[in-house]
UniProtKB/TrEMBL annotation:
Residues 210-356 form the UvrC family homology region profile domain. It comes from the Bacteria. Residues 15-96 form the GIY-YIG domain. Keywords: Cytoplasm, DNA damage, DNA excision, DNA repair, Excision nuclease. Transmembrane segments: none annotated. SUPFAM superfamilies: C-terminal UvrC-binding domain of UvrB (SSF46600), GIY-YIG endonuclease (SSF82771). The keyword Cell membrane does not apply. This is Excinuclease ABC subunit C. Gene3D superfamilies: GIY-YIG endonuclease, UvrC, RNAse H endonuclease domain. PANTHER family: UVRABC SYSTEM PROTEIN C (PTHR30562:SF1), UVRC/OXIDOREDUCTASE (PTHR30562). Residues 214-249 form the UVR domain. One of its GO terms (biological process) is nucleotide-excision repair.
Length: 418
């Protein structure tokens, strides 16, 4: 599929979570992925450096594809579960070739009076000497493969908050386990729930993993009404909580993972490249702009770049940023960043986002807001993306400011000599 073909289609792609498909001849499924924003995610496949940003295998798949389709979901969590189910059904070559399926993760439900819900690696399922066989456990349900192990762990935290389940505790041991005290185990260890009641919870989890959300909501609503009719008000309140949680899934922890970076062809995670931009001028004249790079916490000064502002009006900082970023994105030979830092608030952030949209790129942008003494006061942007990267963001911003001022002074001195 070409960029022109994609541009004709992209307006119809929703800015919402879901699963997407690259299709080849005879609608053969070549690749399946999930996204926080289907529109932004699909747009990211049609950039000049796709082989570097994603992998040569993915670049080849995009060229081979003839059509794109998608399924919208209500949350990122549901997109993750649907992605695993569809990969299992279609077994797309581009998905399975990116990673050995034995290193994928699976969610299994054991065959016991009080079933466990466990995350198991593919190689453990395949080996007779695995932890499952050593515990003499049989499974009733296996869900997966899940390509993203870290995201699966975050997803299971969300699922467990909605439907507390057993993983390691001993049933009816007479004392509550630690997870029960946190509200993550229904109390099979303390005898707080019967086997029949617990199996109902497991059925709810199965419906969720099967993508049968409507059926699950109907079941919960029916059970809630029945409990209220029997005057079992605590049970009805818990079912009401589960209903609400499913209708308002809090999956911000999954959204942040969307930007941790794709894998290379060798399966290694790309380094964390941050690019920061700033400009400098003297009462609107002799305007210049700069780009600096911080990679994995270190300033990469050999990759700093200078720009003479040519088209932006005097004193138009947002316009200068747009010009610099547009000229930077014209350099296909430069690696793309995973985060862009601008000096300023919403106006600068929005200016950068508009340029990125014009280039069909979905790179997160954050802005560093300063006080009256030009000291960092706040970092604006997705708080989940910012968390843990504050030092690198502020380093990049400080370097951009220092480099811009230095470049402007040198340029001003040369002009004075002339």
């Amino acid at each position: 599929m070409t960029l022109d073909q994609f541009k004709k289609k992209q307006k119809r792609i929703p800015d919402a979570p879901g699963v997407y498909f690259f299709l080849g001849k005879n609608k053969k499924v070549l690749y399946i992925g999930k996204a926080t924003s289907l529109r932004d995610r699909l747009r990211s496949y049609f950039v000049s450096e796709i082989a570097e940003v994603r992998s040569p295998l993915i670049a080849k798949m995009v060229l081979k594809s003839q059509k794109i389709e998608w399924r919208h979901t209500d949350s990122v969590l549901e997109a993750l579960l649907l992605e695993a189910s569809l990969i299992k059904t279609y077994k797309p070559k581009a998905n399975t070739d990116l990673k050995d399926d034995k290193s994928f993760n699976y969610v299994v439900i054991t065959k016991e009076e009080y079933p466990r819900v466990l995350i198991i690696r593919g190689k453990e399922l395949a080996q007779k000497g695995s932890s499952l066989s050593q515990l003499s456990l049989k499974t009733t349900k296996i869900f997966g493969p899940f390509p993203h192990g870290a995201q699966l762990k975050e997803a299971m935290k969300i699922v467990r908050k909605i439907f507390p389940y057993r993983d390691t505790c001993v049933p009816t041991q007479g004392r509550p386990c630690f997870n029960y005290q946190l509200g993550l185990c229904p109390g099979v260890c303390a005898g707080a729930v019967s086997a029949q009641e617990y199996r109902r919870t497991v059925r709810h989890i199965v419906l969720l993993f099967q993508g049968k959300k409507k059926q699950l909501l109907a079941a919960l609503n029916r059970e809630m009404r029945l409990a209220a009719k029997k005057e079992e008000f605590e049970e009805a309140k818990e079912l009401q909580r589960q209903l609400y949680a499913l209708q308002h899934i809090q999956d911000i922890s999954l959204i942040k993972d969307e930007y941790r970076g794709p894998s290379t062809a060798l399966g290694a995670t790309r380094s964390m490249r941050i690019e920061a931009y700033d400009s400098a001028h003297l009462r609107g004249s002799s305007a210049v702009g700069v780009m600096v790079v911080v990679e994995d916490g270190a300033a990469e000064k050999s990759q700093y770049r200078k720009f003479k502002i040519k088209t932006a009006k005097a004193g138009d900082d947002a316009g200068a940023l747009r010009e610099v970023l547009a000229r930077r994105l014209g350099h296909d030979e430069w690696p793309l960043p995973r985060l862009i830092v601008v000096d300023g608030a919403r106006a600068q952030i929005n200016a950068a986002k508009r340029v990125l949209a014009e280039y069909s790129m979905s790179i997160p942008v954050v802005g560093v807001v300063k006080d009256e003494k030009h000291r960092p006061r706040n970092i604006l942007g997705d708080t989940v993306l910012i968390k843990g990267k504050e030092r690198d963001i502020l380093l990049a911003n400080a370097e951009a400011h220092r480099f811009a001022i230095g470049y402007h002074r040198n340029k001003s001195r040369r002009n004075l000599v002339i």
